[in-house]
Amino acid sequence: MKRAILVVTVALAMILVNSSGPASAGRPATRPQQLVQAIVVLTAQVDPSTIKAPNRRQRGAALERALHATADTTQKGVLALLRKRQAQGLVTTIDPLWIVNGVSVTAAPSVIRELATRPDVRRIDPDLAIPAPITPRSTATTELSPAPPEPNVALVNAPALWNLGFRGQGVVVASMDTGVDGSHPDLAGRWRGGSNSWYDPYGQHPTVPTDVNGHGTATMGVMVGGDAGGTSIGMAPDARWIAVKIFNDRGAATSTAIHRGFQWLLDPDGNPDTADAADVVNDSWTLSMGGCNLDFQPDLAMLRAAGILPVFSAGNYGPATGTVFSPANNPQAFAVGATDNTDVIDPSSSRGPSACGQPIVPRAVAPGVSVRTTDLYGLYTVASGTSLAAPHVAGALALLLSAFPDLSADRQAAALEGGAMDLGPSGPDNDYGYGRLDALAAYRWLTMPDFTVSASPSTATTTPGGTATYTVSVAGVNGFTDAVTLSLAGLSAAQATWSFTPPVVSGGSGSGRLDVTTTAGLAPGSYPLTLTGTNGSTSRSAYATLVVPAPPDFTVAAAPASRTVPAGDTTTYTVTVGTLNGFTGNVALSLTGLPGSVGSSAFNPTSVAGVGSSQLTITTPATAPPGTYPLVVTGTSGSLSHTATVMLTVTARDFTLSASPSTVTVSRGQTASYTVSVGSVGGFTGSVSLSVTGLPAGASATFSTNPVGTPGSSTLRVRTTSSTPRAAFTIRVIGTAGALVHQVPVTLTVR
């Protein structure tokens, strides 16, 4: 089942808020809040299905202008708030992202919570930390002459397209990986060069292509490597490459860096009028957890809309089923599994089905076992894994785009699938996908009658129990005139019902309407849909998203997390109510957990309308028993109820008693003096009456001040007489204040 992505995610922020440390006595907590790294995705999003232009490059430029315009217009409110909170020390970084219309932030949990209540915020994603993939390397430097293609390159028929004159010329291939060793003899001359051909979002290697890991160098060699090592190792040796180093030198990537990398690939020089975007993008990485994560779905959708097919390695988590992880299992990705050179699937190659709902994943397989490719320091390596399979497909796309420069991303995917050599059970399956890559067959397929499928809008929103409508268009290619049957995947019968009108598009071209009616219990979230048109054994797909927003709701938070108060005093907390998804109701506030003997409570005001705050006042009696009490603030609006927990620590009022020096020696008839000091505990301010016991015979005691205010001191004088016995005596000084009694011993030695 797909993992529902909440429209607004605040759990991370709330956890961090509630884990704050205790406050100092009688004052709000001053301990800094633990900062949260997150990506705030705005509600306003560009619908790529509305972007129309005569060719692929012009569509990409028009799309980028629309993305910039939407971000510039709709991010103003969020950015203004973040800059205000930054001036208050609650935000440290603000990084606007136009490709997803979002903002990457590092902020206090209170700011994340505040952002989550805004109607212009769709959701808040954590800024993930993603480890770099590892490719085992076995250095091989053998040179052969002449330079035959490597067996894996020959197997997928790349040389056949070379012989037709298509070697990737005019095509720019991009890598999102650990970087590229730009000095390698098989790669140096193929780098496009210039400031728009290398991007390190971490700034560790700002101008020179660098790879300290080797993984990105290995994948680039499969895509564009030449024959400097004695064999032809690359699929498209005349293509040019650019690269984003999404993994830093420590081998880690962040969601922010990946989003920035995707938008850089759409416009490396920041000028939409310059045709310098990538034509092919290879991503030989995935997340390391299962389920359907759609954090990068907007990026992939925009790449496809710009005519760039995002190629992903399926992952090396096989042979178990359901092991193609995100983003490779997103509908907009083209996931690639691995086979050996005898067309047997690699046991470790990840398998479907997809947690994101599309019928087939991986989409295809390619050689990924014992692949000879480029390594660091000008060397070569033999490596295995789907990381090596995916760049075979990316390189094949470069060959096809040399022959057919204006192919849409959907058409590129269809050619790869239509030309694939079927393996395993007859037809597409979740082990081999549509089959093993065959570049020549894909080229030939592009000249045959076929059809494409598209959907508009790309995203539709409805409430549980409501209906969303899409237009599904079928267009014939190369004289196709047959009927196409429409179907939908991505939702179960328990989640929705749907119908196409008409269910079959006749004549090879036309459109139909898809109505999706959700069930009343459908959970809020984003649901990726796959709309498929089928003619005989040929099927083509389009992708759309169904968004079910969460119902109106509210949040309750209380600060500080802890207060300390002396018995008999009053303390306050601030209770804040936030709104989610357009909530406008009244929230009534109440408190539980406060025993009557400990104190009484009052809210001002007792209810909050929509968004606002209330002051919670706790008044304790002087007799309140000391201790720590968890208090639960509850906000209620109709059937909705949310809570926040704070701690109340009550300390008893008391005084301290001390005397110095501890020992005094006098001769009979002399007077001994002691200083008696009274201190305050828990705000005690009363008077303390002093007395003594244990005086020897013939001795008397006086206090210079009695009773003593708190804090204060008094001089105790003990006068002896000639009849006082010679000995050491323990005298106890007693302080009394109501029911409170303390005593302290001193020694009197009489000689």
Automatic annotation (TrEMBL):
<protein>
    <submittedName>
        <fullName>S8 family serine peptidase</fullName>
    </submittedName>
</protein>
<feature type="active site" description="Charge relay system">
    <location>
        <position position="177"/>
    </location>
</feature>
<feature type="signal peptide">
    <location>
        <begin position="1"/>
        <end position="25"/>
    </location>
</feature>
<dbReference type="InterPro" id="IPR000209">
    <property type="entry name" value="Peptidase_S8/S53_dom"/>
</dbReference>
<dbReference type="InterPro" id="IPR050131">
    <property type="entry name" value="Peptidase_S8_subtilisin-like"/>
</dbReference>
<feature type="active site" description="Charge relay system">
    <location>
        <position position="387"/>
    </location>
</feature>
<keyword id="KW-0732">Signal</keyword>
<dbReference type="Pfam" id="PF00082">
    <property type="entry name" value="Peptidase_S8"/>
</dbReference>
<comment type="similarity">
    <text>Belongs to the peptidase S8 family.</text>
</comment>
<dbReference type="InterPro" id="IPR023828">
    <property type="entry name" value="Peptidase_S8_Ser-AS"/>
</dbReference>
<feature type="domain" description="Peptidase S8/S53">
    <location>
        <begin position="168"/>
        <end position="435"/>
    </location>
</feature>
<dbReference type="InterPro" id="IPR015500">
    <property type="entry name" value="Peptidase_S8_subtilisin-rel"/>
</dbReference>
<keyword id="KW-0645">Protease</keyword>
<keyword id="KW-0378">Hydrolase</keyword>
<feature type="active site" description="Charge relay system">
    <location>
        <position position="215"/>
    </location>
</feature>
<keyword id="KW-0720">Serine protease</keyword>
<dbReference type="InterPro" id="IPR036852">
    <property type="entry name" value="Peptidase_S8/S53_dom_sf"/>
</dbReference>
<feature type="region of interest" description="Disordered">
    <location>
        <begin position="129"/>
        <end position="148"/>
    </location>
</feature>
